[in-house]
Amino acid sequence: MRVLLVGDIVGRPGRNAFQLVVDRLKNEGRIDFVVANGENAAAGRGPAPDMIHALLNAGADVVTLGDHAWDSKEMVAGIDLETRVVRPANFSKGAPGKGYVRVETPEGNITVLQLIGRVFMQPNYDCPFHQADRMLKGELGADKVIFVDFHGEASSERMALGRFLDGRVSAVFGTHTHCQTSDETIFPKGTAYITDLGMTGPKDSVLGREVEPVLQRFLTGVPHKFDVAKGDPVLEGAIVDVNMKTGKARGIERIRIQI
Ligand SMILES: [Fe+2]
Ligand SMILES: [Fe+2]
After folding, report:
1. Model confidence, pTM
2. Domain total for the chain?
3. CA of 106 to the centre of ligand 2 (A)
4. What is the pLDDT of residues 135-156, one digit of tens each?
5. C-alpha 69 – ligand 2 centre gap (Å)
6. Three-state SS for 44?
7. How many whole angstroms from 167 Cα to the centroid of ligand 2?
8. pLDDT of the residue at 23
9. Which stretches in the chain have pLDDT values below 70?
10. Could you tell me the distance, in angstroms and rounded to a whole number, from the CA of residue 74 to the centre of ligand 2?
């Protein structure tokens, strides 16, 4: 089973790139299942449920979120009705939504779990390491094929979590920084890993936003509106080939496809 993992989709350019590339890869028979990070899909901000449905219609099987999960009031109100969207499992107890979903496929179940980091992030998230450990010993104990989106800032924290979960999940992949790393690998016990998938959106930008307002913010310290940049869209991510019987990864290929 080849699973396409898609880095943070930013605004309309990102959504367009996502649709085009997923169509192409499916037509070429290169992918069987798609996990996409959608936390910036709505003009760079967190999506409402209708945007999630658009990503699902465009070919995503599961959409993950992140620190922008609650940008839209509609998502806070409606996420409990969604079956194919996950927000970080280590959000505070009582937060709406789910931290994992389990999807049936003809070859077996695929579970997608999301966690969020605490280094250089909000301090009020629960520990992602202990959260993952508890879940893998608990409700996910019988799941063979598990993909973990670790939405974090620090490479050290993400790499450490990847090592911590080696052999216990099929893949750990980072999202959030919008900068693709070239460290894709398979750890000794069979877990595929990449520190960050990158971004799906306009490359001629600062993390998907227009360059000039971001520069002015740094130069003056005055808040500016950061609109999504235009043009030059790219899809960044990785394709993981997983053995559905053992849950071990057979390969990981990093991808960057310019439209
Ligand atoms: Fe994020
Ligand atoms: Fe993001």
Report:
1. 0.97
2. 1
3. 31
4. 999 999 999 999 999 999 999 9
5. 10
6. coil
7. 27
8. 98
9. none
10. 19
CATH of the domain at 59: 3.60.21.10
Helix (H) or strand (E) segment spanning residue 217 = helix 211-220
Q: How far apart are CA 69 and CA 59, in angstroms?
A: 20
Q: Which of 175, 6, 149 is nearest to 88 (CA)?
A: 149
Annotated catalytic residue within 68, 151, 176, 178: 68
Please give the helix or strand (H or E) that residue 214 lies within, else none. helix 211-220
Domain that holds residue 132: 2-258
Check residue 210 and give left, alpha or beta (phi > 0: left; psi -120 to 50: alpha).
beta
Q: Point out the ligand nearest to the CA of residue 198.
A: 2
Please tell me the predicted confidence (pLDDT) of residue 123: 85
Nearest CA among 146, 100, 173 for reference residue 243:
146
68 classed as catalytic: yes
Question: What gap in Å lies between CA 4 and CA 15, rounded to an integer?
Answer: 15
